[in-house]
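Contributing new records

If you add data, match the layout below exactly. Sequence lines come first and carry their own label; structure lines follow with theirs. Keep one chain per record. Anything else will be rejected by the validation script.
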Amino acid sequence: MEIPFVNATRRNHALEHATIAVLLHRLGPALRLMGRSTAKGFYIYGDIPTDEVVQAAKEGLTRLKNGESELAVSPLCGTNLAVGGILAGVASLLALGGKQRNDRLSRAILAATGALVLAQPLGRLVQKHVTTSAKVDGVKISRILRNGNSRWVIHKVETSEK
């Protein structure tokens, strides 16, 4: 089922990941930032020069359009945390449901640990098929706005469809 605002958010989420990947490559892995996507674009939170955000967003969009769909999926995405939390919670709940009380805690810990091991590859699959879409052919960057100062800088990257 095609829902326009969901599809736009998924594409912007992919572009957010691509932009952050480019920024991390250019400015180093110690860079502290985070992003959040909407149907109208995405936000980058972190003290980064605006010209770097502009260049990274343009490069990320170009690379996605040129087939580098792997940029849409990030090991740093909150989707991985959400999948890990859900899996660990469900696994623990199931492990605690047994009748033998004396080993329920150890089973819950083991189940949660196993779930967290599965979370990273499963989180990437959820990103690839549910929360991002690398199909950005009709997407263009409309404008990039900067708000805030020093450590509370927010860049709003607005996108539109051609």
